[in-house]
Design brief:
There is one protein chain. The chain is α+β, with helices and mostly antiparallel strands. The chain has one domain. About 35% of the residues lie in helices and about 25% in strands. Helix 1 packs across helix 3. The chain is globular and about 40 Å long.
């Protein structure tokens, strides 16, 4: 399996995938995300927020299916 396929598989999960999880299957996961977006896949990134309102350095990536 290619790294791009592995990244796509993780992002398709119900709760998406964090940047930390993606870094375990591809060191340059941001390039794989860019490849997917270039192929027309709707990948969305959401920055994680703490209960006190501060943002973390963790991003969660989702693949939004077209309806």
């Amino acid at each position: 399996m290619s790294q791009t396929h592995n990244v796509m598989k993780l992002c398709k999960r119900i709760n998406g995938a964090t940047n930390w999880e993606l870094s375990h299957v591809s060191l340059k996961y941001s390039s794989r995300i860019a490849e997917l977006r270039g192929e027309g896949v709707n990948v969305q990134a959401v920055r994680q927020q703490l209960p006190n309102g501060r943002y973390t350095n963790t991003w969660r990536y989702y693949i939004k299916e077209e309806e």
